[in-house]
Amino acid sequence: MTTHRLATDTDNGMLLIISGPSGVGKTTITRAVERSIPDAVFSVSATTRPKTEADVDGVDYHFIGEQEFLRREAAGEFLETAVYAGNRYGTLRAPVEAQLSRGRLMILEIDVQGAKSVKGKMPGAFALFILPPSEDVLLARLRSRKREAEEVIQRRFKLAQGEIAEAKRCGAYDAFLVNDDLDRSISEALRMVGEARRARR
Ligand code: 5GP
Prior knowledge:
It is a single chain. It is built from 7 helices and 9 strands, in the order βαβββαββαβαβααβα. It is an alpha/beta fold. It has a single domain, classed as P-loop containing nucleotide triphosphate hydrolases (Rossmann fold, 3-Layer(aba) Sandwich). The protein has a 5-stranded parallel β-sheet with strand order 2-7-1-8-9, with helices on both faces. A 4-stranded mixed β-sheet has the order 4-3-6-5. A hairpin with a 2-residue loop joins β5 and β6. α1 packs across α7 and α5 crosses α6. The structure holds guanosine-5'-monophosphate. Guanosine-5'-monophosphate binds next to β5, β6 and α4.
């Protein structure tokens, strides 16, 4: 006889939202959490932003065109969508639902707009915002990546300042983590996630 698992039998399935401005070490922390927790799954978003050399299609994002994004949005395929720096981003609903019903830890690396939207729909999600030690450090990190021109860096820096202010104001985040030391931040993120999962059991 096959036993059927209901969505409510999730053991400790949990949605983990990780946000933070670019240059704060968010992706490194997210990927470390994904590797350290055996049942963690990273949600691969769809985006219209152009693929960079650092991106792997289907691993970092599903890179799709504007028309396809709008079609999929109209078809209800996204749990949430946002426009960030002029590009569209969306979390695909089906994998999130499938993984949560299996009791997995589903990780969403999304911006503040997305976090607000998801927390509104799924209040049991645990939302973590990564902060830089200071604004000066953030600007220095954005510059050290040597990925973009100064004008782009300044634009990203302004965006980051706005995001930090909104994250603190909006009430969507359960925890804030200052990334002053990567190893310590990873351990701290793992500790917070473990505690949140135990509390939701
Ligand atoms: P980037 O282009 O630097 O990879 O991402 C830009 C911003 O979009 C980051 O803050 C990232 O976390 C966010 N982002 C990535 N995927 C999604 C998504 O599916 N939904 C939302 N709301 N934001 C996303």
